[in-house]
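Table S5 (text form). Sequence records supplied for joint modeling of the two-component complex.
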Amino acid sequence: MSEGNEKFVQDNNQQVGSSSEDPSPKEGAGSEKRQQKLSKAERIALRNQANSENSLVSKIDYLSVHDDTTQNFGEYHLIQSQAVAASASRVFSSVSSLNKDRVGEQVWIRARVDTIRPKGRSAFLVLRQSQYTLQAVVSESDRVSRQMVKWISKEVGEECILDIYGNVVEATVKSCSQHDVELQVWKLYIVSKVKGRLPIRVEDAGRPEWQEGVHVLRDTRLDNRVLDLRVPSQQAIFRIQSGVCQLFREILLREGFIEIHSPKIIAGASEGGAEVFKLNYFGQNACLAQSPQLYKQMAICADLDRVFEIGPVFRAENSYTHRHLCEFTGLDIEMAIRDHYFEVVDVLERLFIGIFEGIRQRFANEIELVQQKFQISPITYLPPGQNPRLHFPEAVQLLRENGYVIEDLEDLSSENEKALGKIIKEKYGTDFYTLASYPASVRPFYTMPKADDSRYSNSFDMFIRGEEIVSGAQRIHDWDLLESRVKAKNIPLSSIEDYMNAFLYGAPPHGGAGIGLERVVMLYLGVGNIRECSMFPRDPKRLRP
Amino acid sequence: MSEGNEKFVQDNNQQVGSSSEDPSPKEGAGSEKRQQKLSKAERIALRNQANSENSLVSKIDYLSVHDDTTQNFGEYHLIQSQAVAASASRVFSSVSSLNKDRVGEQVWIRARVDTIRPKGRSAFLVLRQSQYTLQAVVSESDRVSRQMVKWISKEVGEECILDIYGNVVEATVKSCSQHDVELQVWKLYIVSKVKGRLPIRVEDAGRPEWQEGVHVLRDTRLDNRVLDLRVPSQQAIFRIQSGVCQLFREILLREGFIEIHSPKIIAGASEGGAEVFKLNYFGQNACLAQSPQLYKQMAICADLDRVFEIGPVFRAENSYTHRHLCEFTGLDIEMAIRDHYFEVVDVLERLFIGIFEGIRQRFANEIELVQQKFQISPITYLPPGQNPRLHFPEAVQLLRENGYVIEDLEDLSSENEKALGKIIKEKYGTDFYTLASYPASVRPFYTMPKADDSRYSNSFDMFIRGEEIVSGAQRIHDWDLLESRVKAKNIPLSSIEDYMNAFLYGAPPHGGAGIGLERVVMLYLGVGNIRECSMFPRDPKRLRP
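The corresponding structure-token record, covering 1090 residues in total, follows.
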């Protein structure tokens, strides 16, 4: 990289002269136009003035940087809304907007220093703004004093935030996202500095495992998550995560759902399990909801008809695996059905394929960044309605045919799930499929038994690449049947009294499903560890940051 | 109401004959067409057959109801996905879709019984589907046996869920949302029954305070929230709430924000306050986040640039007022700013006016339902940028001019806020305005002090009708200044170590705001109590349902 940089830097220096004469600046070109028209003598005078003044650089008022007589480098006073109003006199350009079309423009950008490399009478910076990077070069010239270059080399470090005013010039910078331009720096101010030493370098945190160089352990990255999240591929993951949520909602609103918010602090255990976080609620025993399950069903009993919720769910499960978190974001749906729980599967299939397609279209750049780092291939799927739906006994048979040992009514192990994923991929050509009619014994008490064989249930899981992304079912809407299931599972009726009562007053047939947002993102992108897809993950060993 | 009903019922009976001869049924008219062509003799034979068979009504298979030989009334077997696939052979119409344009059609609907009134050889039902109601009439006729009417009068109670097949006829039913049609019932099946007695009647729960009749206390309603939520105006509130969330996101995504999910279980107290819910996290002390404040700021330090979050926030505050909840849905934003925190206010003003306008346009029907019940007028506001922004000293002066007593650096009491709301409404003609530059002493430690007068801060609240809906500020992004404020407020640095560290590595100037979803809905609609806008509210006295 460094060699390539040097080469183009020379090209760049040659271009500086011509582009600074460019008579048609397109943006932010108010007072700059005047400055361009200064005679050479005036410029030298200005430069000398700066040189003498800046032996001790004092702090700069950010409101004055448009003024030609203001020093063209330095550190701002703390930005404290000193301006009279919000009206920014400067127009800032985004790094991502800078490309060949804007060559010859003078622009303001505010960006972070990814790397800085002083070299003789120049300094070469890579600037970073979210997942976009741009090279900037400060070289001693008519506009730029030796003092300025020296000051920058000394004062500007990695992860500083800068305001830079400069000239967009053509260049080839393969290592930056903006690979056909660079910025020739005319003014440079420090907005925010790093205090002390960086615990990890962002460049190291972002280095793919397969690439030579310094690597930072995941735990160290997560300990310093604020720095780690600045890695462009990490930024991309969270932009995609945001996109998944938005597509989830867009599609469900289109399907007639409304969004609800159910309580997270509840009396009793949300699904009767033991793995709950307990708390004291003004003297009463309470716990954190393990899912919105009971409340979303109550919303259906309250005639909201089709509901979804996006919210945290809490599992006090002492599992330390690549796919478990103790707090994650649940994507939940619940809907009245007319006849059959496959009505829910139909919605989910449209939903997921809508999400897959939407992400592919809206976040192509982000997917590429993540895939570059993790070296993974995109998932395959068929159009809605064409992805296989196997019933549990069929899956058992497929596994047996392929030499796996499994009991009829036993849940699938992770290994068997993975194996089944491969078998189905080979047979049907898709990474995405549904497995239905699970044994009743491996599903929660509220799952509707199969009408003609109560050993099985009206339940399903959906998979990507052999890993479960959704779990759902028809729910029992009949109070008597529900009561018998609660008793059979030895759950104290008193612990779910409010839930039970909801089925006394005429409950509609209904079904739904629960999805883990982080898991969907992990499996869609093939990232390999769920912690990469949680901004500040929580597992049995991690409560911070 | 009953008189009107009787009158139109007679009209209806006259229309039956003609509409059953209608040669152009538009929907669900497969097998029905055949049935219409039965001769009178055949019909009578069918009717007699039914009469003799139905002395003891057995349960009906819901897959068979299209079959002419199946009894045309009864209770279904439990719907347990008996159908082979999701393909519903029946097309159901929504209650809201039935109007004059569909007169003469035969339709299936699945709806709940709002009220039922047997009367001689007829029974009059009001059917309810979410916020829509429709009158249905069963009258003895060629198609409907006396036995059927008797059975319905005996077996069908309020809040039952029914499948009804019937003929849409013209009628005037002022008391129903579908006021120009009613359904003449040909087939009726019970999908789901009520078990035991209803603890409250939905009609009573929905009765406006100003209207004569039985009223249900709010606490009783909330104790039976699943029934209470079936009230059309309550349904409307939650559809509007869902709409507010969606508009919030749509507008912020357009403004370049992304959605994040910050952890709710945190080590230490989220803002250093005492009013937190504590819990045990695998042997470590933890608590529930009082807001996403610290984490959304960390997301900005991690270069996510503009973020929002919709999620639960938890306040162990022993306040029992009309506007406090112990768990509510926070709408939070945080953004890097260039120069001034009014950049945040600009975004928020566009956001709120976008929400107000969006709700008005998309939920006109729902707003009307709520306003009918609570007898409130819509709020007034000016276009974005034109709503007043007062600085705190100006507000103090306005209050003093109007005879209120207030110290220079004292926070506004609720009474003073309300008074100010009235003064501003009178002076500027808007219910919506911003109050900025609060005294530093009444704002949290992370609030940026005013540059030229540190007694004040770069903070603001936004109001509707004199009640705060948003609280926001520029945040301190400088570690040293932040540290001095933390110390001044006697917060142990160790309790917010991760947060503090985020400011060591070059933090951008930023600001943001927090909003309570339930409060926005309450104030926009003028509902008067925040519990009406929380599906399952939590206050110091209420942990259930």
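Note: The domain at 232-533 of chain B is CATH 3.30.930.10 (BirA Bifunctional Protein; domain 2).
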